Amino acid sequence: MLYSTKPSSALTMPNKKTIHRFIYLAILIIISGCASKPSYEIQQPDWEISGKLAVREPQRSTTLLFNWQQKNDHYLIHLMNPLGQIQLTLVGNKHYANAVDSDGNIHQANNAEQLLLNLTGWQFPIQSAQLWLQGKADKSADKLQYSEQRLSDLQSRQWQVALSHYRPIDGQQLPHRLRIVKEDGLLTLILIIKQHAHFLP
Fold it and tell me: What is the pTM of this model?
C-alpha cells in the first residue's frame, strides 16, 4: 500500500481497472471514518521536503507551511497555516487527484492543478514542480539557463521559474528556493525549502 494513516486499518486491493482511484479513495475512506484526524504519509517515499510557500497576488498575499512527499509520480502534499495546522491535503498523480480540506470535506478531480485552483483561488503547477524541486527541467520547459552547471532559470508554458540557493543533499546539489511567476505577472509563488531528504539509493 503506497499511503498509510495513523491509525490505519486493513484494506483489500482492488482489480487493476480501479488501481489509480483506489490509492486515494482508500485514504479518504479512512479519513471520513475516524473520529479524530489521523496523520498521513507515503510509505518509503523517494523524497520528502518541508518549507514555506508564499503566494503573492495583487489583492492578497498568503504564507503557508508545506510538507511534500513523493514516490514515483505519486505525491502527498500538506498545506498548513503558520501554526502548523493542516488546512489542505492533496493526494494524487498525473491521472487523478483528491483533496481533504480543514473541515474534512473531500474533493476529487482528474487534474491536481485545477482542483487546487477551485479550492484556493490560485494556481500551482504541481506536476512540473516535482521536477523543478529536483533541479530538473520538465518536458515543456525551454529557455533553460544554467549557472555553475546548475539549472537557474526556465520558461515552462505559462510559468517563469528561477531556481537558486543550491545545497548538497545526499550527494546531489538541489535548489532550496524556487520563484515561480505566472506569465501575466498576477501570481508569484515562492518556495523556500527548509528540510530536504532523499531516500533513493
Answer: 0.80
